[in-house]
Amino acid sequence: MSYAKKYSSNQSDHRPRTKSLKQKNGYVKDCLIIFIQQKIFINNASDDIAIILCGSDTTKIALVIRIFKFFGTWKSQLGAAKCVNEVVRTKNFEGDWMDALGVALDLVHRKVKAGNIYDSIQIIFFTTFESPFKTSERTQKAYISALLAEKTSLFIVGSNLDQKSLEDEKKMNKGELVAYQLMQEASGAFYSFGDFSASMLHCTEQPKLGAPWNVTLDIGSKIQIPISAYIKVKKSESLKWSEETSTEEALVDRERTYQKEQSNAMIDREDVISAYKYGSKLIPVSIEEEKHWSYKSGNRCLSVLAFVDPIPPQFGSGTGTKFIFPHRKAGVVDRSAQIALSALINAMAEAGKVAIVRHVYNNNTRLAIGVLAPRIKFKYECLVFHELPFAEDWRQYEFSPIITPKSKPSAEQVEAIDELIDKLDLSGAEEFDSTKMSDPYEEYIRNVIGFKVLNPDDPLPDIPPHIKMNLQPAPSLMEGAKDVLNRVQQLFPLQVTDNLKAKNFETSKRWAIPATEEDAEIEKEAKKTKLDETGEVDLESIFRTKTVIGVGTANPVKDFSHLLQMGKKPVEEVYEEMSKVIVKLLEDGGGTNAALMDKAKNCVQAYREHALSQGHVVYFNRWMEQFKEHVVSNYFTDFWQNYVAKSRLGLITKEESPLSAVEKQKAEQFLRLSENVNEIESVDEDEELGNNTDEKEAISFLLAYDREASAMCNNVMNTQWDFNTNITEATKQRMLETQLEYAKFQKDVWATATTFKWKTFRDPTIRRQFKVLSVLGRAALPEEKLKEIQQLLADMRDIYSRNRVCPYVKPPKNTSLPIRPESIKCNLALDPDLTRIMAKSKDTNELTYMWQQWHEETGRPLRSKFIRYVELSNEAARLNGFKDTGDQWRASYDIEDFNSELEELWMGLRPLYQQLHAYVRRRLHFQYGKAVPLDGPIPAHLLGNMWAQSWSNLYEATVPFPNKNSMDVTLSLKRQGYDPVRMFQLADQFFVSLGMKSVPDSFWTDSMLEKPLDREVVCHASAWDFCNGRDFRIKQCTEITMEDLTTAHHELGHIQYYMQYVNQPLAFREGANPGFHEAIGDVIALSVSTPKHMQQIGLLDSATDDPEVDINYLYSMALDKIAFLPFGFLLDQWRWKVFSGEIPFDQMNKAWWDLRLRYQGVAPPVNRSEHDFDAGAKYHVPANTPYIRYFVSFVLQFQLHKVLCEASGHVGPLHKCDIYQSREAGKLLAELLKLGSSKPWPDAIRILTRGRTSRMDPGAILEYFEPLIEWLKKQNVEEKAGWRGMNSGILIKTTWIAVLLPSITLVFARLW
Q: DSSP class of residue 756?
């Protein structure tokens, strides 16, 4: 029984019939094995198979059912074939075959009910209908209903029935008649065993449709028609039994050329034309055509070269046929392209012409010449593209020369060879119809693999007769060439020679005619067949067409041994090649691929054994010490522990070789990694750890925790969601109650976890989970203080979300004070009201008013609550073993001196920010005059954002080239009728195009994608994981803008992360570090925001290749990405110093503006004091959300973007890369996301970059913005980048006046 996804069968006309019951029983096993084998090779193990065996040797009754289930993988389906070979015994037992059919239908029902979805379901039944039939008509009807309900096809194999018998019901017994009725209802068929075997041997995989190739069809210099091409048929890759040899590709030889000269006639060189000779035919090739071979393909294109008469189909070549239709934009056909293409198709059809075209799939990829033929059908019309052979294709079919300086055939011999070629020319032979022939090589590989699975210890079988038959030339062809073959045999007599050793000859560097006689002799010797002492042919020498010239990654041990035996390279050079291969194998597998690590281990072993046997001990030991350093620095610790150490492949000791100076004890110590590398922390005798060392019990505890914690977490998330989407006192109290319950649960878990001596466990995954559980967080506080801190956090979020500001009213003349009439309602919320005003207003008084109102109405009420929160939070951190809360937050990044690394990253990016700051400041100076001094900080309220963290809203006022098209698609979104749901659907489609998961249906019903009008909500966009593996939501007050479209992609990046690591334990269901989660959505946004992508999804009319447009685009990106960097860096610098006490509570606001001046170059628009709490006006401060993650994410997103672009095959500037529809990039991204936090984040970076680095690197950002950097430098050449006070961090010309009040000291600052 099979559950099929994609499968087709071409039945052969030749169907051998079975003759006896004994023969039928013998065929059952063979049929089953062939069936499973073809399922694997044709369907790539994509189908599910279940085998049901009826009866047994002991019971001899049909009611004893044995079910073997094998589903969906190569390993399991090969196991199915092995099971059939070992278990199936076909004997004649009486029994009702309908009982077995009932079991099959029940299994199908259970599989479908379990949620499995199949394209088709087939039951293949092997029976001879010899047993009495006893099933009632009621049961028969029930089975028919079941077959129809599950849409199941029924195939009967083994019956004596033929087509004539089926036409006469009287010739059928009752069982056959019922089976015939079932088969008709279920759309099945009858087969004999011979029929079934023949049909299985002629199965072919169904062709697959790929993504469209979008390009313009160019006709001349003025006509361009946007088209989308779809591949109709594509040849699948051949199966391989063994890995490819690790040698260089051979170059193709040049063909010999002939020059026909008249007797005694002098011919100028330019009048001579080369030609290829194929038998008696001469195919001329002009000099221009030869020059054309060396042309670069250039940019992707489909250009018409000429319109010609139809070309015979036999001249087609290549790997596929493309059907060309008008271009589609987001599923909508381009009407202009449709009209133009239709006119072209009909004109070609009426004129009876086809087009010769130049085809380049991607920039500088292989150039192809093809033919476009019109096709007009009732339902559609299109152009059909077939590739034609030209220079690059011809060279694939070239042969070694016959004429060499050493061996010159006579004219008679040449004539005989030409005649033989003519006789064996298959281009017009009806016997050679490739559409009706299978590939003998593929058939033989399948046969060998199937045989080795069933008989792993037996030698390879002979080629089966039915395959040998396909290897023989057609009899009619050979009959026609019989005479000329005899003539060739007479003209080329064979001579017996001694066994000659072939010299090393690189066929890849051979020309059509060897340059010297010595070259010709080398070539001749290299081609000779090697004979062993018994005279048998050495097959390896026959099939070896390449020479091993270095150690490769496919068969490194074999290459290593071969090179050492040849002795043509110094041993040290071969050792060096082997060491590079070992490192490459580890890096290619990211230190996690078992197959590559096993191959690397074998390389180390071969290297060690040779060094030991040949006396190169010191050389090997020196290399091994360097290799260990590389392993440790690149986190390949699994390879070292599980492969090197376990196999004892360390330093060579004195006991093994007298040439070594290494003691055995030192070698043993060398194999052990240091404790910090192993992640096994040293355990102090005085440290309060439990004494339970039972790892099995620890695993049971972790499994129980995962179940209970997931349920508790789900409850907490639901109440938090209720509060954030409906801010009331009731929802707040319910949230606090569940948070308190969860904290108590966490404390109980922590108490149990600390009874284990988990730091001594050998399994790093278990240790890592316990490490997470050992940090209790706020739950470590006493219950009263825990309630207090939870209430403080809820209150702070409540104050922030509920705050409303009065609208600005322009004051009358002669006064600077705004008027607030009593009729005006103070109901302006941050989102969208204040955000829109800060973005759009150009009135400095209004901007100052809004800035001041928000900061004071929000920040001041939070100040005292924040101070108390800091005290309680620090107490909780100390209870968890940290110095303060900042120390606890930094610990999640697993870097000892994380702050120094951040500072280093910032210093690498600061010059770019300073150039952007200088340009924006100058443009604002032109707009606002002295309010923006050319050498000072920029007033914070003039940068288009409440916190000056993003300057995107300044784009229109400061755009470098205002006459160029805008990249903002906001108007296009509104014009096309986008709403929030459609924007998120577009974002979801991006991830689906990468081969990643789509959001569940519940996402669309449960998320809050726009701001409700009937209640207060927290509008700050956020993604939510409800801890149950299926409930994921987004909360966002979406506006129809390009900015919010980008935010939608960002938030769905979080959701994708949640869905990818859903199978990890709860402790690991988070980002590799907090910055990873933010980076994933943003890395997608880097592709989404490109003009190319916006044009592709129909939101931008065109994406032109214009340097000025590129500068505008990069500038808009810099206003968002680069402008944010210092703010993302400094916010937590400020908080960490508050947590540590470096910034006292009575200087928090001064320190806040010191940091903003030093790093960001901005200043407050009005006087500030310690009565203010301006940091609290940023959501993440009252919400207790660490902020350095955003700075980290901005660095990581460009680093990830570069890696994914490389995986997608992008060629060109990094800022033009769009990974949309790249399955390769999606696969790499999914591989990273599935890890969650199960590995340290440097490991995650190393896996993503395939071992190239394990650190954050700002280089990708600088590469991305390189054109803009150079442009900004030219614009800022006459002024110095930077601002007054940027190095000291102290406000220039500031007077601080302390005024003592009863409860607090207020400090006022004034900017001169």
A: B
Residue 1189 labeled ligand binder? yes
Q: Is 1304 exposed, middle or buried (0-12, 13-18, 19+ CB in 10 A)?
A: middle
1078 is in an annotated binding site: yes
The HSE-up count of residue 1001 (CA atoms within 13 Å, CB side) is: 0
For residue 703, what are the contacts with CB-CB under 8 A and spacing of at least 6? none
> 10 Å Cβ neighbour count for 648?
11
Contact 623, 604 (CB under 8 A): no
Q: In degrees rounded to 5, what are phi and psi of residue 893?
A: -100, 0
Q: Of 133, 149, 151, which Cα lies nearest the Cα of 141?
A: 149
- Provide the pLDDT confidence category of residue 100 given band limits of 50, 70 and 90: confident
- Cβ atoms of residues 1129 and 1191 within 8 Å: yes
Kind of pairing between the strands at 213-219 and 301-308: parallel
Q: Give the long-range contacts of residues 520-526, CB within 8 A, separation 24 or more.
A: 520/404, 520/405, 520/406, 520/407, 521/406, 523/404, 524/404, 524/406, 524/407, 525/500, 525/501, 526/502
Q: Torsion-angle region of residue 613: left (phi > 0), alpha (psi -120 to 50) or beta?
A: alpha
- Neighbouring CB atoms inside 10 A of 85's CB total 16
3-state secondary structure 1225-1249: HHHHHHHHHCCCCCCCHHHHHHHHC
Residues with Cβ < 8 Å from 641, sequence gap 6 or more?
A: 673, 678
What residue spans of 132-224 are helical by DSSP H? 137-149, 163-166, 174-185, 193-201
Q: How far is the first Cα of the chain from the last one, in angstroms, to the nearest whole number?
A: 86
pLDDT of residue 284: 75
Which residues are known to be catalytic? 1051, 1180
Which residue, 485, 520, 482, is CA-closest to 503?
520
Return the ∠ at Cα 932 (arms to 931 and 935), rounded to 5°.
135
HSE of 1046 in the Cβ direction (CA atoms, 13 Å)? 22
Strand 332-333 with 354-360, pairing: unpaired
* Residue 1050, annotated as binding a ligand: yes
Query: Which amino acid makes up residue 757?
Result: K
What's the burial of 1141, exposed, middle or buried (CB within 10 Å: 0-12/13-18/19+)? exposed
Minimum mean pLDDT among 226-235, 567-576, 1258-1267: which range? 226-235
Is 1054 annotated in a binding site? The answer is yes
| CA angle in degrees (0–180, nearest 5) for 1129-1132-1137 | 120
Which residues does residue 157 pair with via DSSP β-bridges, in sequence order?
126, 191
The DSSP letter of residue 229 is E
Distance CA 783, CA 804 (A): 34
- Round to whole Å and give the CA distance between 136 and 812: 99
**What is d(CA 155, CA 144) in angstroms, rounded to the nearest whole number?**
14
Phi first, then psi, for residue 452 (nearest 5°) are -70, -30
This prediction has a pTM of 0.50
Would you put residue 1041 in left (φ > 0), alpha (ψ -120 to 50) or beta?
Answer: beta
Query: Is 635 annotated as contributing to ligand binding?
Result: no
Q: Report whether 995 contacts 1226 (CB < 8 A).
A: yes
For 783-801, the pLDDT digits (tens) are 888 888 888 888 898 888 8
What is the distance between the alpha carbons of residues 1135 and 1186, in angstroms, rounded to a whole number?
Answer: 9
Residues forming beta bridges with residue 357, ordered by sequence position: 304, 370
Res 478: pLDDT: 78
**CA nearest to 727, candidates 1017, 465, 930, 420:** 1017
Contact 796, 1182 (CB under 8 A): yes
Q: Tell me the CA distances in angstroms from 442 to 42, 451, 470, 1269, one per residue in order.
A: 11, 14, 12, 55
CA dist., res. 467 & res. 490, Å (int): 31
Per-residue pLDDT reduced to its tens digit, 820-857: 556 577 888 887 888 889 988 888 888 999 999 999 98
